Amino acid sequence: MVSIPILSLIVLFLVFSAGVQFSVADEPVPAPWPEQFHALMLMNKSGSLEIVDLWYDWVNDRNFNIIQKQLGKLTYDLEWNNGTSFYYTLDASRTCRTVHFEVGILRPNWLDGAKYLGQRHVNGFLCNVWEKVDFLWYYEDVVSKRPVQWIFYTGREAHVMTFEVGAVLEDEKWQAPVYCFHNDNKNSE
Ligand SMILES: *[C@@H]1O[C@H](CO)[C@@H](O)[C@H](O)[C@H]1NC(C)=O
Ligand SMILES: *[C@@H]1O[C@H](CO)[C@@H](O)[C@H](O)[C@H]1NC(C)=O
């Protein structure tokens, strides 16, 4: 004869296993990116360091990476959602390269479908971690839902130092310099 306490243990076990199955279905998903934000990022590409001043502006179809390489040049990477990107400097060298991509800037929901990998402690933050297959691992603070870092398959690491939701860079700063539009510019593609 199975005693009542053992029966209730079995019932508890069944309830618990059902609960575990539910929690798989209820896996956390990454917060979509705010439609406009400003972030200061520390990038590490196998030991080459950069500070990136990132202005994400989905509302106005544009994304700006202002890149300071360690003891190197300040470089501007201005991306439009129509696929055109301008890479330029504003120093005396007046270089500009125009690149056309098939796709525009990242959509706010670009992390949809990422595979949940669980939780990790990273630089003092408890993070949910997802893998965007063929691309990167994404770490988001469990409490604030802000991104903490993402690591590309290439090994390039992006560490988020500030994250200001709703901050927008003034329109005049989004104007690529005139030498980006010279047809005879040797650096244009
Ligand atoms: C950058 O990454 C390299 C490994 O690729 C590591 O050895 C180095 O400590 C990192 N530097 C910083 C400042 O995180
Ligand atoms: C995309 O938009 C930018 C900014 O308005 C413009 O300079 C560029 O010429 C456009 N590119 C194409 C392919 O229309």
From TrEMBL:
In the UniProt record, the signal sequence range is: 1-25
Q: What InterPro entries does this protein map onto?
A: At4g14100-like
Q: Keywords of this protein's UniProt record, alphabetized?
A: Signal
Q: Which PANTHER family match?
A: EXPRESSED PROTEIN (PTHR33880), TRANSFERRING GLYCOSYL GROUP TRANSFERASE (PTHR33880:SF16)
What's the name of the protein?
Transferring glycosyl group transferase
Lineage per the UniProt record? Eukaryota, Viridiplantae, Streptophyta, Embryophyta, Tracheophyta
